[in-house]
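worker-3 :: picked BCCT family transporter
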Amino acid sequence: TLIHLGKGAHAISGVVGSLPGGHVTLLLFTLMSVVFMATTFDSTSYALASCATEKLEAHQEPARWHRLFWAFTLVILPLSLIYVGGLESLKLAVLISALPLVFVYIMMAVSLFLSLRDHK
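worker-3 :: C-alpha cells ->
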C-alpha cells in the first residue's frame, strides 16, 4: 500500500479525492494551506525583522526590505534542506531544533503547577 511505501500524503489525497466532492475539498484544502503558510511567513518575518532592527520604536514598523529578507530566508532554509537530503533531512533538522524546547516546556509545566498550587 501507499502508506507502507512512505507515501501517506498520496494515500490521503487519493481517499479524499474518491469521496463525493473530493476534488473540491482538495482544492479548498490546498487554498487554505497556501493562505496559512503566507500569513505564517508574513507574521514570522515581521517579528524577526522587528527584533533584528536596532532602535525601532513601538509605533514604527521594520523596513520592507528587512521583512522580505527574513521571508526569503524562511522559505530558502527548508527548501535547501529538502533539496540536499530530501524530506528526511528536513525531519532531522526539525527534530534537532525542537529538542531544546522540551526543557522549556517542562519548566513551563512546573511553573504552571506551582502557580496553580499557590493560587488555592
